[in-house]
Specification:
six-stranded mixed sheet; globular
Amino acid sequence: QTIVGEVTEVFDGRTFSMATSKATFRIQLQFVDPPLPSQPLHDVVKAHLSSLIKGKIVTVRLSSMSQGVSI
């Protein structure tokens, strides 16, 4: 299953929110292991992902879904 929507917020180096015409989803990218908030480069990694996708229309292929969180 795929969903298409606009990225509205980036939470860290692998988690973001996207809005579709029907709902808002919190998406977590697979196989990405960014630094934790307490670790060096956390802000750099978050800013980089944000610069790549925030405000853009993306297509996400879901591998699983649980309580509104796609993984």
